[in-house]
Amino acid sequence: MPWHGSGVATFVHRRSTQSPFPDGFIQAKKRLGRPEAEIWCLSPPLEADPEAWHTWRTLLEHLIAHAGAFGIQRLYACLPTQDEAAGLVAECGFAPYVRETLFHLRRSRMPDATLPQAATIRPQRESDGLALQRLVDRFTPPVVLKAEDAHFTNDSVNHTLIFQRWWQLGRSEGLICEREGVVEAALLIERGSRGVWLHYLGDPMQREIADALLTQSLARLRADDRPIYYSVRAYQGALGATLRDLGFEDIGELTRFVKHTTVRVQEPATQKTRLRIETSFPGVISTDMGMPDKS
Question: How far apart are CA 88 and CA 92, in angstroms?
Answer without folding.
Answer: 7
